[in-house]
Design a protein that fits this description.
The protein is of the alpha/beta class and 334 residues long. The chain contains ten helices and 14 strands.
């Protein structure tokens, strides 16, 4: 990073020109986004400036905080100092802010839609593994209560969470009860046992079978029915609602069955195509969901940031339309 390996080449060459010409212009650079969002990546951006600028002591940096709600065009970060000291880092901190703000904003919106119910952050499989650590932290700041990998949880000293997956059930010949019992046998009791119950597309009966076999060891069941299928318990009720996938009626069927057979403490987690809009629909209808598992929708959209040099030696020097904007919310970084 310090050498410019990850930076757009024109920034590296700009620094090289200034160094070769022995020019150290003092500039003020401001960073802003163009959409309403919840800020993410600021701690990473500051770390990049601290560790990879030519001399951190030459810079005066002001910033907002991770998790802050921001408005379009609001400066979130300013850097003042010799431009050659940090010219090569713009690509890096802008990319970090864009990525983490996207994940954090999408997660915050899901968390708000589900509140006070829990949201589990499950999108790791939808992107490159290298983004997991920062994405997990952005989701944590946004309010997600669980992430799916240890890497995602590493920045706040936690670990990944999860359920008994379809693959383990298949590895035990498609026997959900056996797979769940084996999980309970070999995993620490501190690990909450949540079992996927849609393997046979009969979530009600599978939920009851698992609950009867595991008793108090079962924390919850997870419904993940494909959008291409109608669960067996829903077939007879079709006609006045969209029956495919994890629909409200399926959740009601499972909850009613569990309660009727003496398992009111078993939680219901739902996953599979959940977005802000789908969660809002479920909450409006009062569907008895205890937690939402959300994946690929958390990586949707764009939350780009722009950086401009707006002052040169203390005087206005911005391109037209990008003048310096004071933001009293910014705080000095030490």
């Amino acid at each position: 990073m310090r050498a410019g390996y990850y930076s757009d080449k024109y920034f590296v060459r700009s620094r090289d020109v200034l160094v070769a010409d022995r020019q150290r212009p003092n500039v003020t650079l401001q960073v802003f986004g163009k959409r309403h969002a919840f800020l993410g990546g600021i701690d990473e951006a500051i770390a990049i400036l601290k560790l990879c600028s030519i001399e951190w002591g030459d810079l005066e940096v002001k910033a907002l905080y991770d998790g802050d709600e921001i408005e379009p065009w609001e400066p979130v970060l300013t850097v003042e100092g010799p431009y050659d000291a940090f010219a090569h880092l713009e690509t890096l901190y802008l990319g970090v802010l864009a990525r983490r703000t996207k994940v954090g904003t999408n997660t915050r919106r899901v968390v708000e839609a589900a509140s006070p119910k829990e949201v589990m952050f499950f999108p790791a499989r939808h992107d490159h593994w290298l983004v997991q650590t920062g994405d997990g932290y952005a989701a944590h700041i946004a309010g997600a209560i669980g992430v799916s990998t240890d890497a995602q949880a590493s920045w706040w000293g936690s670990e990944g969470t999860g359920t008994v997956p379809h693959a383990l059930i298949a590895a035990y010949g498609g026997d959900t009860v056996k797979a769940s019992l084996k999980f309970a046998e070999h995993m620490d009791e501190a690990v909450g046992l949540i079992t996927l119950v849609d393997f046979d597309n009969d979530s009600v009966q599978t939920s009851l079978a698992v609950a009867k076999a595991l008793g108090d060891r079962l924390y919850g069941v997870r419904l993940d029915t494909s959008e291409m299928l109608v669960d067996k318990s829903v077939v007879a009720q079709m006609g006045h609602f969209k029956p495919t996938g994890v629909c409200p009626q399926l959740v009601w069927n499972v909850r009613e069955a569990l309660d009727h057979h003496g398992f009111p403490k078993v939680k219901i987690v739902v996953s599979g195509g959940f977005t802000v809009e789908k969660i809002q629909e479920f909450e409006l209808l009062g569907v008895p969901v205890d937690a939402y598992g959300v994946g690929s929708s958390l990586f949707q959209g764009r939350f780009d940031f722009t950086a401009d040099v707006v002052k040169h030696e203390g005087r206005p020097a911005a391109k037209v339309g990008r003048a310096y904007r004071d933001n009293p919310r910014l705080e000095r970084v030490t």
